[in-house]
Amino acid sequence: MTGIDAAPLNWSDLGVSELVPTGTVTLLLADVEGSTRLWESQPDEMTAAFATLDRTLAEVVGAHDGVRPIEQGEGDSFVIAFGRASDAVACALDLQRASLAPIRLRVGLHTGEVQLRDEANYIGPTINRTARIRDLAHGGQTVLSGTTTDLVSDRLPVGAWLAELGMYPVRDLPRPERVVQLCHPDIRNEFPPLRTAKSSRSHNLPAQLTSFVGRAQQLEEVCRLLVDNRLVTLTGAGGAGKTRLAIEAANALSEEFDDGLWWIDLAAIADPAVVTLTIARTLGLPDQPRRSPLETVQRFVGEREILLLLDNCEHLLDACGDVIIRLLNSCPQLTILATSRETIAVSGEVTWRVPSLTLEDEAVALFIERAQRARPTFHVTGDDLALVVDVCRRLDGMPLAIELAAARVRALSLHQITDSLNDRFRLLTGGARNTMRRQQTLRASVDWSHALLTDAEQVLFRRLGVFMDGFDFDAAQAVAATNEAEQFQILDQLSLLVDKSLVTADEESGAMRYRLLETVRQYALEKLAESGEATLMRARHRDHYVATAVRLEGEDRLIGWAEQETGNLRAAHAWSIDCGEFEPALRLISALQRLWEKRGRMREGIAAFDLAFNDKRYRDDDVAAAVWIRAVADRSILTAWTADSASLERGEEALAAARELGDQGLIVSCLAACGGLAYYSPAVSQAYWVDAIDLARKADDRSKLCYYLSCLAVATNVAGQPLASQLAAEEGRLVADAIGDDFVSRHCRIWLAVALAWRGGATDGDVVIRAVSEEAHAAGEPMLELFALTCESNSFAYRGTVSASRAKAKQAHEVSIAMGGFHDNTVHITLALADLAAGDAAAAKTACEAALALTTPDQMPYIRALTPMTVALLSCGELAAARRWADETVTMTNGNYQMNALVARAHVALAQGGRDQAERDAHDALVLALATSAFLHVPEAFEALGRCAADHGNHRHAVRLFGAAAAARTVMGVARWPVYAIGYDDAVEQCRKAMGEDDFNTAWTEGSAMSTEEAIAYAQRGRGERKRPASGWESLTPTERDVVRHAVDGLGNKDIAERMFISPRTVQTHLTHVYAKLGFTSRIQLIQEAARHA
């Protein structure tokens, strides 16, 4: 017992320690139930039993490090102290498991700070409370205080568990105590209700044969209401647990009512006239001459402090209300707790709606506890827990439904129970025989509530079954009221359904939202089907939500409304598809376009469109032209966002139809759709976007203008034109900011940052992109959050900030996974760049392979341009593979992407010893850099040329290029990746030794003093006589050489065009130029010349 203060103490032979613990200690107090009676009736057995008890105590106290003050206790009671609460629990369990018949021990445990009266005895509040807790127990029962429970919950003996018994007043002590029972398969676990502090107090509360699970906070709230108010009514749906909660509250407050408390069950009473008679009989009052039953009850209660629990009042509201008012007015100390599915609606009533159990703890705990009662071998594993949570969720946390479902574990697995919930009224039967008939099946419970409705209320109730996930008043009026009279009455009737606990009402964002619990909704749907109104109501439901979505389409509140009404919107769409009514389905999905885009739910929108378009019954001619044209355009835009494959032909078909209609708005939308579908055919895509932007300008539609400019920024980026992308993004951002379109503004800022980075303005790009990911996350725009994170990660990678780059890439990957793999190929490219910055060649190669594996054929040219596979293979030392990849990439790319590919191939050529190839590629890359204003990879081009110059012995020229590269990196804020240090350090050192320190520094300074453009001009001048001549082999451009290479391999013009992603006519043009420059007239001559230069 290290760490526990102790005082010396003398012990008998039964003592187990020489110290009694003080400070914070767990005390075990026990006595023998009915000891006096047993000594009188069984003296011999008691003598033997007490000898066994003494031996048992000597064993278990020592075994569990306890201390037994020999002088503490009176009669047949004893005290044991423990330094650890878990030891106390284990000791109590051993005592209860021991064979001590006819002795049955009452054991109480409590933890607190103790005081010593003298050397051998405890005194004070802790031992007093322990004794009072023990007094609550029955023989064979062990009860713990809440304090001790909290200490041992996770350290129980093997096989043991705790059962909550509730809050109980403790005799002579100021506050009630949470009491918990220790249970184990080896001991008795079923007991009557705890002994109340005043056994003489009258009550008839029914003994509870099952534990009270959860609801600690609700129990406390109800108790507080009862202390402060004389009439409290617990309301709620059938099966919500009103009766059990009321009984537990009455038990917990029994100390407050000195003259007793009584439970009056009115469920079986059909005649309102016998309500008072039932109360009188429950109180044990006989008939009295010349007095009515009510007068008899009033005379009996009088000034007494009594709690009456009137249970199940909903079918006797008038009678109950009259009795309650009369009793409260004539009996000043009386308190009434009522339960009802509907408020009693009398003066002074405080109503409290009993909520469903919380899913993650209370509902699951109830299911598990009741399932273990039904099948003691039932245990929940990690996989099973998700099924239990799903069952409880689908049952809305309703205690009755959960208990009925749990009872099914006797015959069904959890999977079977989950599957059977589709027919829940058939599954959820078979309640305990000692419960009311209406509580033995779920259907009976709801039948009871339904029977109490008026005809008009029943009509409204069944019609409300068409709503999914709740509804507002406007929706209820639009759907469920079919004529003016019903519209006028619906508010009152809806309020009555709320009062009768068939509809729940909660305030959300300043407005009331209504909902039927799913079990109740299924019942309502059955009644709706029986009425013959199902088709009419579903159609009205669909029409309301389509009309509302269309009306809100241009408003900011569309998205919030749509997210709240997701269940209803899906139901409306599904009904339209099921009925083959495709036009309203398409109108609904188009109206939600902003939701799909802003929330990153593009694939959900595409799937919704496809349910109509792919249906065998669908025909364009059966739908208004404007509807299907817009639907095609909207679907195409969603497809462009996801980068999924789609046919441009369908978009062009819609565009032609829009032009035939002469609808400028549809024409613009279709142009944009075609532009999105053609993203990976840059020239085609840009033409569509330019036309769409022109029309948007003419129409002064700034919303579409900024959106289309942001898309043009994407298209020009795909085309390898960063300057054009920058200009489009900048204008789009200005327009978006002017009209307050934050979504488009963020989209423009992302592509502006990308363009600036390619142009060598990484620092400026960082300023633009900074905070976009946080803004997008806060706004619920995962798509833009993903794009911003990849942009930030790439920027960090180029700057050499490896940890930050990988962190952002990891975040992007998590967002992509959450969106179902959205743009996962570009995320892997981002991971590859971070790996290259870290010098992790193998990881970079793996990431590149993953990116390519996730890429569709039409995406391949663009994704290949972005993927740093050449550099990854170079880093891995796979030079032949790197060269093949570089050669193919150069032929497939344009603009800044081709410039990047040329730089990478130049470094591969250097590694292979191909200095001339490296020099050509580096010079060609610089030409492209100037043409596209893309300077990001210019430093690598300078360094490649510098290494070539060093090999030629032109050390001064080489050092100037190295200095220019260093200066460009400083200006752009980028670092040299480890792969590009290969050969670079040796070349620099070679020049330093050849020139001497002073000349080296002078040349370096001369190079670093030049701007990037000046350095490019200097490098091109340094090409001297090696500038491309007008004729001969050296006059061929890189693209012309690639065409020649494919021709030499035996490919025809069409095959070359497919390989290089250009048209056959373009291939022929290149060959014509080649023949002219070389002076050839046949392909044979070309093949021979190519072989000579191989």
TrEMBL record:
Listed InterPro entries: A/G_cyclase, HTH_77, NB-ARC, Nucleotide_cyclase, P-loop_NTPase, Sig_transdc_resp-reg_C-effctor, TPR-like_helical_dom_sf, Tscrpt_reg_LuxR_C
Superkingdom field: Bacteria
GO molecular function, one term: DNA binding
HTH luxR-type domain mapped to chain residues: 1029-1094
GO biological process: cyclic nucleotide biosynthetic process; intracellular signal transduction; regulation of DNA-templated transcription
Residues annotated as domain Guanylate cyclase: 26-134
PROSITE patterns: GUANYLATE_CYCLASE_2, HTH_LUXR_1, HTH_LUXR_2
Protein name: Transcriptional regulator
